[in-house]
Amino acid sequence: MLINKLFDTAVVGGGVAGTSLLFTLAQYTNLKNLILFEKYDEVSELNSNPKANSQTLHVGDIESNYTYEKATTVKKNSSMVSNYIQNFDEVDKSGFRGDKMLLAVGEDEILQLKKRYEEFKVLYPYLELWDEEFLKEFEPKLLEGRSEPVLAMGARGQITTVNYKVLSESFVQKALDTNKNVQMRYNEEVTKIESDLDGYYKITTDTTTFRAKSVVVNAGAYSLLFAQSMGYGSEYAILPIGGSFFFTKEKLLNSKVYTMQNPKLPFAAIHADPDVTQNWNTRFGPTAFALPKLERYHTLHLKDLMSALNIDEDVTKVYMSLIKDKTIRRYILRNILEEMPMIGKKIFVKDARKVIPSLSEQDLTFAKGYGGMRPQVIDKKNQKLLLGEAKIEEGGLIFNMTPSPGATSSLAIALNDTLSICKTLGATFDSVAHDREIQSLIISR
Ligand SMILES: Cc1cc2nc3c(=O)[nH]c(=O)nc-3n(C[C@H](O)[C@H](O)[C@H](O)COP(=O)(O)OP(=O)(O)OC[C@H]3O[C@@H](n4cnc5c(N)ncnc54)[C@H](O)[C@@H]3O)c2cc1C
Predict the structure, then answer these.
(1) Phi, psi dihedrals of residue 376, rounded to the nearest 5°
(2) Helices (H) and strands (E) in the chain, counts
(3) Other Cβ atoms within 10 Å of 381 Cβ, number
């Protein structure tokens, strides 16, 4: 038995972040002893589950909430996932090709879309503008019963949808297939991480104690709690934002349809997605509402929640600045009402009609058991809500918090962490193979 031996790296959390790191370490470094702890009996039971997230590979081409700079990074990050799928996995197993578009409704949005197209076509030369005539044939439901003019910017035959759970399983299998000592510890919850006297780390689980030279915690909101228990990251707090979905009773669209972002709103505008778990039936969402939970469909541990919220004067100021804005206030209220059993659908259908104008309340059902929790990070020092990923790094310890588009960025985050671990442990990284297999392919059409 190799248990309790000293591991090179211990990974806490078996979502897409933890498993992509396990794969990168096993495949491209000379580190020989790796261990991953997952508290549930399978990988990706929380946010990386296809029922929890929107299954989108965020390339930045149709997400109007991204600036050009953010889109450039997201494009690079997403290409690593699509390259993995094309090189190591099979297309249409974890990643699926399809069509996608950003839909502009009304003259103002059309103007903005045209401007965006001119700017972004440099980064995404495959993008096309689709007018009403084209859309009437291509996605007729977008036009039925519509009075306002529309224009879309879209792309065809791209990897648009990813089942991040299947992808996680593939990462684990590829790591196990190497000739390294890779241990998967399912049903094993890490309860404590401590520095050891020899400069290494002691990891205590509900059953045993392990030792590792480096530890990466990819445990969603719990990453911050582990960091704080070790004296790091007191400058951060978590605002847990729930996201729910609605299904249509039948498949109404073939493409992913994103809508134009209201720049005042902190979370992405709703979109319609063909759902991989529901035979490609149309799924609308996500909503966005503060929920006092760290895991959507599991027991709440109040102590963990209170630690994550980390409420003090600075955090309160961030909440107040969000509530002070009329547009955000309305948005928050609307999203809370959308969760209410009797009136939720009535309100949500009005938002969804931006995509399909002929949609009726009866066409929609609340997606029970679907939805997740985004651990949005609050930077207390700058009194700001951060909208992307956050990392705390200290010697051989890394703590990652990965709200959207964290699943898309998983291999990019894994690369950074791998390079950092290699530097700390004096290990080697096969950048030639990584470049060839993960980084260098262009997203193919
Ligand atoms: C509504 C919604 C829609 C989204 N849509 C998209 C999208 O379309 N595209 C995209 O790229 N991203 C999307 N995201 C974000 C994406 O889901 C996350 O960024 C990603 O899943 C995070 O992966 P992770 O591995 O960090 O976290 P998780 O998948 O939550 O994994 C954390 C793991 O750590 C384990 N764990 C926790 N504590 C312990 C412990 N003490 N010991 C052992 N194990 C532990 C958990 O069981 C879990 O398996 C969305 C998120 C939400 C909520």
Answers:
(1) -70, 135
(2) 12, 20
(3) 10
Whether the per-residue pLDDT at 166 is higher than 90: the answer is yes
What is the edge-to-edge ordering of all strands in the sheet holding 289-290? 289-290, 236-243, 372-379, 384-386
Beta-sheet pairing, 95-105 with 33-37:
unpaired
The helix/strand/coil state of 52 is: coil
pLDDT above 70 (res 443): no
pLDDT 10s digits, 264-273: 877 778 999 9
Maximum Cα interatomic distance, the chain, rounded to a whole number of Å:
70
Q: Which of 249, 316, 309 is CA-nearest to residue 281?
A: 249
What is the residue type of 187? N
Is the shortest distance between the CB of 375 and ligand 1 below 6 Å? Answer: no
Q: What is the pLDDT of residue 440?
A: 76
- Kindly give, in sequence order, each residue whose CB lies less than 8 Å from that of residue 113, ignoring residues fewer than 6 positions away: 64, 102, 104, 129, 151, 152, 153, 260
Q: How far, in Å, is the centroid of ligand 1 from the Cα of 330?
A: 28
Residue with tokens 């699926």: 96
**What is the per-residue pLDDT across 21-67, written as a single tens digit (0 to 9) for each?**
999 999 999 999 999 999 999 999 999 999 999 999 999 999 999 99
Query: What distance in angstroms lies between residue 46's CA and the mean position of ligand 1's atoms?
Result: 6
* Residue 2: per-residue pLDDT: 42
pLDDT at 289: 82
- Provide the pLDDT for residue 441: 54
Q: Which residue is it, tokens 């070790």?
A: 230
Chain-centroid distance, C-alpha 416: 17
What are 391's strand-pairing partners? 400
Q: How far apart are CA 370 and CA 384, in angstroms?
A: 29
Q: Please provide residue 8's backbone torsions phi and psi, each rounded to the nearest 5 degrees.
A: -70, -50
AA letter at 156: R
Q: What is the spatial distance between Cα 328 and Cα 332, in angstroms, rounded to a whole number? A: 6
Dihedral sign computed on CA atoms, order 50, 206, 398, 221: positive
What is the residue-averaged pLDDT of the chain? 92
Q: Could you count the other beta carbons within 10 Å of the beta carbon of residue 93? A: 13
Q: Could you tell which of 48, 230, 257, 408 is best to mutate to test the pocket of ligand 1, judged by most ligand atoms within 8 Å of the CB?
A: 48
How far, in Å, CA of 266 to CA of 169, rounded? 32
CA-43 nearest atom, ligand 1:
49
3-state secondary structure of 255: coil
What mean pLDDT comes out for the span 384-391?
A: 86
Using CA positions, which residue lies closest to atom 3 of ligand 1? 53
